[in-house]
Design a protein that fits this description.
Length: 144
Amino acid sequence: MLSITLSGHGGFASGLEQAMKQILGEQPQVIAIDFPESSSTALLTAQFEEALATLDESKGLVFLTDLLGGTPFRVASTLAMQKPDREVITGINLQLLLEMVLERDGLSSQEFRLQALECGHRGLTSLVDEMGRYREAETIEEGI
């Protein structure tokens, strides 16, 4: 099973982890690492390294971060480049996390990345678009 680290500014990572646990229950091989305003790049790097020491990377590791170019993304990227079978995905949200935690078993880190990107694109929508899809489906079912 792929290991996952969540990281982001403020309490983003622990908030996602808490919401995930509320919906799915405890999930193995998932660690959240927050980056509060009082932290530093050196401290965040040390926290990542400590977390990585506890995770099983035999099937690969995926770093999920909040913001492209932010410190959690940059630290994760540096660590990802140190070993094969590590991927960094940024711009994550709760829907992506939930779907990918459930789908990760049997996926390589590269397959996870590709599927997560599809999930992220599919998950960003609006009420108007969803209502339009519902109406289209309803029309097809009733159609003549």
